[in-house]
Amino acid sequence: MNLLIVEDDARVARILERGLAAEGFTPTPVPCGSDALAYIERFEFDLMLLDVRLPDIDGFTLCRRIRAAGHDMPVLMLTAREQVDDRVAGLNAGADDYLTKPFAFEELIARINALSRRARATADTRLRFDALCLDPGTRQACLADETLDLSAREFALLQCLMRDAPNVLSRARLLERVWGADAEVTENTIDVYIGYLRRKLRGAAGGPYIQTVRGAGYRLTT
After folding, report:
1. Which tops the pLDDT comparison, 119 or 20?
2. The pTM is what?
3. Which of 1, 62, 64, 118 has the most crowded Cβ, counting Cβ within 10 A?
4. Distance from C-alpha of 130 to C-alpha of 112, rounded to nearest angstrom
């Protein structure tokens, strides 16, 4: 498992690196938030250990930025802060767990393993297409580094298109899946909501678009 350690204390970083390597992990230590952002864009990591107090970007801000960019790796915050408000702030920023220093190394390993199991259990529910990521569990959709503000119908419609991409879905099929077979709406309703989605996808940076296939329906493509 590839771990990114974001820790500005060189002594602590060395202890974590050596201890985690001895447990069979592949740790990569970086001393600041800007380095962490650069590494995340270049390499794949399974989990991040994140210190709150960093010399450039604090851990809360860094966590919010990587979540906004669509990165969903588990984040375990490591800090000497013990106040409840700080723990809540970390979780609200997108962290998955919070461990205060000093901690037993055995507990750190146990929490890493627990987060890894949780990530594997939920990974299959997330949908990805090009730069578009949709999480049915949290009902969030991100395109590149932007979160899409979708209504419940828009979210359901995009979810259908992503599940079948790049195949074509007819208006009748979309109407049945999103509104239900007995819904008292016409297929023109699909065209209206496709228009809403197109505007929101165009408003974000890059990514796929919705193509009209004449006489057949719609599909998501790049």
Report:
1. 20
2. 0.57
3. 62
4. 29
